[in-house]
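User: Fold this; tokens only.

Assistant: Input:
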Amino acid sequence: MRRRDAAVRLRMQWFALRQNTFACRPILGQACRRAQRGTTPAFRLSSDQRPERPPEPAMESTLSNSPGLTRVSWLDAEPKPLAPHADDDRAYAYLAMIRRYIGGAADADARTDALAPAATPNAPNAPNAPNAPNAPNAPNAPNAPNAPNAPNAPNAPITAADCLERLTEADRVFADWLRPLHRTAADIAGAEPSRMADALNHMHHASRRLTLCDAVLLDNVVDLARTTIDEQVPGDFIETGVWRGGVTILLRAALSAFGDASRNVWVADSFAGLPAPDPAVDLREAIWHHVMGAVDGLRSDLAGVRESFARAGLLDRRVRFLPGWFADTLPAAPIERLALMRLDGDWYESTRVALDALYPRLSPGGFVIVDDYGLPTGCARAVDEYRAAHGIDAPLTRVNGQAVYWRKPW
């Protein structure tokens, strides 16, 4: 009787603390389950002595809010330590489906609505298929969200001749800055017209994708988000410069997949295209911006991004939008702390404004991802100047030939 009373008291304490102490939830959950199984070192309960536990409602997938999708319990409602990456099959199967929905550059270039989550051990099978032998109780996977409607795009691809024409125009537009240098716009841009055409076509004709990031960049986003959740680094997630919202959709999905209910995802963008750089500050950026007029400056719209969140069942109060130019929105944004900030503003000014406004709010142990560090723009200069001015010597880790990240020291 004394041992049974101890188990009941332990469970009552767990329920009381669970309401107030988020950090203790995994530890208390383990202790309570050990007591119920009779595996605590101090005592052991027989099966007829164990107290009955009340049923708890299952946590439904965020995709269950989308019409026509199966209602599925991806995660246990009971708090518990997070499993290692390789064993957390259901969370990663869900994220694989989201990645196919947003259409990462290495995942799918077209027909994102036709792709199903990749098969993983013990992961749920597709709807209407029998459960896998090793997971008889695993829920069926929901259907992938419908792909967003493709925006209007020109029928013909952008050619090298088109880019050469834009560069010739740039020679006239920026003549006052080019003449003292005795150089042409093509020289300053640092890329052949054929390569510029390839880059612009990659941007503009990815009409069924919500992100231009490849698989390596998306893996990096998920891994760093998971690290902040595992290590309980306080703060929200933000991306500055979201295009069609693909990465922020993935970040919101990661919060659901890994059982984090405390953070917000901030979606910051002008939703009016890239700002025109000052040629006196960075002439190369100004020339590239002129050439990118062929793709309307990577313009996206707020309504389209909201719709893409909604199609995935992820548009809720934890998704916060900051529409407008960064200099106007970021300094006054009602963000207390950040755990992860991903900068994708392309230009010097956009990157520097984001660092000035947001890095002081980044929690120790948080991450800064800079998507455009390796591009021929002023982004790297903005990062290097900010780090030097604030004595930041945390090492830069290269993700691919373009993006880098660093971790704010504890």
